[in-house]
Amino acid sequence: MPSFLTILLAAILTDNYVLSRSIGICPFLGVSKKLSSSLGMGAAVIFVMGCAAAVTYPIYQLLLKLKLEYLKTVAFILIIALFVQLVEIAMKKILPPLYRALGVYLPLITTNCAVLGVTINNIDDGYSYGTSVWNAVCVGIGFTVALVIFSGVRSRIETADVPETFKGIPVTLVAAAIVSMSFSAFSGMI
Amino acid sequence: MAQKGYLYEFTKGFIKENPTLVGLLGMCPTLAVTSQAFNALGMGLATTFVLVGSNLVISLLRKVIPSTVKLPCYIVIIAGFVTIVDFLLHGFVPALHENLGTFLSLITVNCIILGRAEMFASKNKVLPSILDGLGMGLGFTCALLAIGTIREIFGAGTWMAGSGIIELTLPESFPTLSIFTSTAGGFMTLGLLVALVGLLTKKKPPAEVGCGNCPMAGSCTGCTSGEEADA
Predict the structure, then answer these.
(1) Chain A residues within 8 A of B222 when measuring between CB atoms
(2) How far apart are CA B187 and CA B183, in angstroms?
(3) Which of A44, B150, B163, B215 is the most buried (most CB within 10 A)?
(4) In a domain, B153, yes or no
(5) pLDDT tens for residues A10-25?
């Protein structure tokens, strides 16, 4: 079982979900235009990932008992969708300021494959309950780091003189390639 | 849409509305499994199967599912088909099952499938929905295979390695760049291909991924601003 610090460093630097494993690319390209939206999305993802891991772990134990573990994809995605809805409703009622800051990002998270990905990877890697939740939170932090870094890169592209053919998405993808390349320098650190 | 003919529903997914290179949907599998052409092909065909199946069932149930709970219903139907594919690959092509790993489960949240369910299958009859799913799925497969081919040839100097059907190995003297097999190479190849398709079709690539093109835009409150800009 890897130590807590190893998990944190791996999730941010060497095994970043977005930049090394290419999971969660849609929000990475879609919401990274401004620093403020990157931070908001990142915070919402950290929160939902941590909670999703905490909720899905006992569900998987239940499925194991019932010998229905092949249903984990169906069960997990339903739980995550349900949970996101619940959080949205609860947050609107109880913490309106937080809702105003994060609320718009919550529905986007249901179909964010990084959330489903981290819960399934936790099970596949055989993590214990505490490690699962910590791993999910760390993966969320790694996601946020990637988003924040990339929002800085994108603000430079906005003002750059890009060839007509590459305007828009192609240049963004090439820039993402360079950011990902720089992160691959961390590989082998842990 | 049905008046445009069945042939159109089938062929539009290949180039005109190609989900990957024109629509920029389903980015995660596009980048993650395409370091080898064989994995890309397998992923594409698995997604096609799920897409045809979910389009068929959702189209059959389009008058039964109440619109307030349609998204959870679609997700359960899609996840069911993903589980079937998971079993089939595990039984018949275990090597591919091993390679794709988590990404098989992640077909559930591939926005191409949910997007076709929301935009096509829930509004059209069964036969056009099946053809739409088949066309879109094969368009996705072709795009994945193209990216996989480029990445494997330039990154590893082989083609379709591990497939056991047609395997090509380029001579040792062929210069390979290992960067193509890494994630960075995936981003790069996809960026260049999207630019190329934009150049050939003389259509500007969409400026944004995400909300603007997101099939969920209508039902997702976070996207209303993006949707207005799009309309």
Answers:
(1) 103-108
(2) 7
(3) A44
(4) yes
(5) 899 888 888 888 888 8
